[in-house]
Write a structure and sequence with these properties.
Radius of gyration: 19 Å
Number of helices: 10
Number of strands: 15
CATH superfamily of the largest domain: Thiolase/Chalcone synthase
CATH architecture of the largest domain: 3-Layer(aba) Sandwich
Bound molecules: coenzyme A
Amino acid sequence: MEIFSRIVGTGRAMPGQAVTNAQLVKQLAASGIETSDEWIRERTGISQRFIASEGINTSDLAAEAAANALQAAGMSAQDIDLIILATSTPDMIFPSTACLVQKKIGASGCPAFDVQAVCSGFAYAMATADLFIKAGKAKTALVIGAEVFSRILDWTDRTTCVLFGDGAGAVLLAADSKPGILGHRLHARGEFENILRTPGTVSHGKATGHPFLTMDGQAVFKLAVQVLDSVAREVLADVGHQVSDIDWLIPHQANVRILSATAKRLGIDESKVIVTVGQHANTSAASVPLALDLAVRDGRIQAGQRLMLQGVGGGFTWGAVYLQY
Ligand SMILES: CC(C)(COP(=O)(O)OP(=O)(O)OC[C@H]1O[C@@H](n2cnc3c(N)ncnc32)[C@H](O)[C@@H]1OP(=O)(O)O)[C@@H](O)C(=O)NCCC(=O)NCCS
């Protein structure tokens, strides 16, 4: 009998209050950085983002999202036998944020590790969890995307600091004879590592390099639109489905223009695309599970519907997970 990984619960967590474009414009103006609500909305579709206050870390948001997913699934932390957490903004170099979350939610003993694939992290984490479940190595997996991207932004660089935000989303996957995750594809092209990166680390007790996000926005834009189209088609071909079989497209929430261009290239009506970038901005690995949870809780996503989840980002990495909800 074929084993599938089925989503049995979702959850999310946003830190504090939303920071609107108007508030951000004012804050940046105080340090001589000029931008506007119109520019941000026209170029990106973003109206607001959430910024974690000092002392709130990725593991705090992740643990809250996980607790909400457990509650939605009617499960307890003891039921979890695998934790995979996608982040590029871990609490510390080690232990992994997944281990910190394991402790915070009161789970113990199961494997817990982080994956680092930037804005594709959630797709990488879901595909990995699915392989564990299909191999019979786990029955209930907690998969989380969580970030405090505000900590790696250069707040004097208006070309990047207006684009990102903090948050976490979580999914519980359970082994089931009913579908489930139907297929996935992951990719990376390291030769493009320099178009989107945070090229710093800690060495001999000091931050080294340039530990702030840098980006060639136009290069990222062009690649993102191409690969989100191609990877969706690859996964559909793997499982013998058509674009018309997709009920909801949930691409990484980077920019509303990337989402529209992807829908257009795939020939999917924009009404079938879940769009949350306006309210959350780009939350990197958290963006897809945040959008998923929001659309599950507002009733748009219904049991039996087919979802195409897609990630794209630094590395350069991308991937897609196609599933029946
Ligand atoms: C970043 C992005 C919104 C910029 O939009 P764009 O149309 O390419 O804009 P450009 O970079 O050409 O900049 C246009 C002008 O706006 C200016 N500008 C840039 N940021 C600005 C800001 N926050 N406010 C006001 N003006 C700004 C630039 O300085 C430039 O001015 P100039 O023409 O006088 O030189 C766009 O490239 C993009 O969305 N890229 C993908 C980014 C992304 O999603 N990354 C994450 C993927 S995981």
